[in-house]
Amino acid sequence: MVIKRVLVTGGAGYIGSHTCIELLKEGYEVICADNFTNSSTVALQRVEQIAGRPIPTYTVDFCSKEQVKRLFELEKIDATIHFAGHKAVGESIEKPLMYYENNLVSLMNLCEALGRTKAKNIVFSSSATVYGFSESLPLTEETPTSAHNAYGRTKLYIEEILRDLAASHPGWNISILRYFNPVGAHSSGLIGEDPNGIPNNLMPYISQVAVGRLEKLRVFGSDYDTPDGTGVRDFIHVVDLARGHVAALRKLRENPGYMIHNLGTGKGCSVLELVRAFERINKVRVPYELVGRRPGDVAENYADTSKAKKELGWEATHTIEDMVRDTWRWQTRNPHGYKKIQDRLPAVMFKPINPAYLPKENMRFIVPSGQPRQQEVPHPPANR
Q1: Which element (helix H / strand E) includes 235?
Q2: pLDDT tens-digit readout, 8-45
Q3: Is the dihedral of CA 330, 334, 339, 342 positive or negative?
Q4: Contact, 197 vs 203, CB < 8 A?
Q5: Model pTM?
Q6: Taking the CA atoms of the chain, what radius of gyration do you get in angstroms?
Q7: Is 151 a catalytic residue?
Q8: Among 14, 151, 205, 302, which one carries the catalytic annotation?
Q9: SS3 of 324, please?
Q10: CA distance linking residue 66 with residue 359, whole number of Å
Q11: How far is Cα 224 from Cα 172, in angstroms, rounded to an integer?
Q12: Strand 29-34 vs strand 57-59: parallel, antiparallel, or unpaired?
């Protein structure tokens, strides 16, 4: 099977943008689709800068069957990497219906569109959250799954939907990637993690404290049965994670059917170890406070990644030192993320971004029902 043209949903997001770069480096043609509610067009402009080539990009609401159908009418797609979806655990507890509707409906609309093509190939961005509170370590792909919040359940339900889909027709090839704690940034410092509001994840919180945007880090739990009493997690560099998606995509060429792999380093690092590495490598202070345990947290959580190494030929290569160094480079060069560069784009129109980079015949505008049609942008000069 030949896979050349790859659709990346949520391609302007943290992991999606890094994956676009790795795909382009491997010679794939990338089409990006995003609704830009939690991401920035600047990220894709930076990806184009790093890669030295344009990316056809569409503003798409994947909960709109009409828009997804039209996208597949416009673009020939050989495979899809699906990142698009809500992903904040706390928010999912407060707004479960929003998570079920957005994450499940968008996946089903995408699969329905894929099902009408001959290229029924998808890599799904799942999460280690599907392992729930398991204390059997390391976590393997055979570890029993459970979820304790709406976000985690949407990941589990999607995995089961895709399993049923693979069983329904031999043409489906589906890769489920359960990854652990992505951190770090591209070594250029041009793209990185840019959370809305107060970060939910540890590394961006640390870096925002270090840069002065936040006062101090609160470390939840200091009495766990771990070397320093703080929780231990499997942190993986976002570039390694992106390369894992490329490795899974490569495997789909062999028509594997349905497969599941963990993506992590296979090594645990405690919260305080990460903080101290950040301070040591970057020569900055990260004020922190030890507070009580957070409900639902486990003492340790790390992956067995031997299956990915054996079947995908993939393993993480970046160290904790690489992770903290690249995070700090991104944070110091972009202290306010992308926000000071360009306001975030509302998901109103469905159209290519940066149309001046695209040839005239590729300048297509798809307008949701009830929206006025936007005037075409003039054709760019021939020498652009």
Answers
A1: strand 235-237
A2: 999 999 999 999 999 999 999 999 999 998 899 999 99
A3: negative
A4: no
A5: 0.89
A6: 21
A7: yes
A8: 151
A9: helix
A10: 25
A11: 44
A12: parallel
